[in-house]
Amino acid sequence: MRRTYLSCKIPPFLILYNIMNHIQTPQIRWLISIVFCISWLLLFIGDTFSQPEHILTQEQNASIKRLENLIIAPCCFTQPVSIHSSGASEKVKEEIRKMVIRGLSEEEIKRFYVDKYGEQILSVPSGWLAWVLPIFVFIVALVVLTVILKRWVRSGTQKPSQT
Predict the structure, then answer these.
(1) How many angstroms separate the Cα of 69 from the Cα of each of 62, 63, 79, 81, 103?
(2) First vs last Cα of the chain: how many Å apart?
(3) Which tens digits make up the pLDDT trace of 93-120?
(4) I need a surface site. Which of 16, 24, 92, 132 has the fewest CB within 10 A?
């Protein structure tokens, strides 16, 4: 997380300029300039050298990646959190990371989100009905289409009655 340099609207170089105008001795001016430059340097590169909160193993990283691809963003239920960019998906990513660090298994994390949001939170449905129902609907549609086509063909081959 980046830190802001000041909460006021006055740029820091103007503050330094005003301070420097009121100081008469060049040694103190030089010292203040050095302190100011070092503090700015530390402010901008300080985050670069900070230690991460927790170093993850390859297993944990793989588990996080699988879970982020499995769980759908709860804000709109359209994309997995791994590719969705919203505050809700970022929150879910952070929760997943924390749960993996605490040592929860993938099944426990998956169950947590299913209990919280329902089955729609999963990008891959669980249960046999989710896999069998589309096949059943396809077969029924195929049978109905066959019956309709046979009737249509039969009605076209009959000779028209002459009256």
Answers:
(1) 11, 10, 9, 7, 19
(2) 89
(3) 999 999 999 999 999 999 999 999 998 8
(4) 24
Assign 3-class secondary structure to the chain: CCCCCCCCCCCHHHHHHHHHHHCCCHHHHHHHHHHHHHHHHHHHHCCCCCCCCCCCCHHHHHHHHHHHHHEECCCCCCCECCCCCCHHHHHHHHHHHHHHHHCCCHHHHHHHHHHHHCHHHECCCCCHHHHHHHHHHHHHHHHHHHHHHHHHHHHHHCCCCCC
Confidence label for 31 from pLDDT (cuts 50, 70 and 90): confident
Q: How many residues does the chain have?
A: 163
- Report residue 95 as tokens: 């929760």
Q: What is the pLDDT of residues 36-70, one digit of tens each?
A: 778 777 777 765 665 556 788 999 999 999 999 99
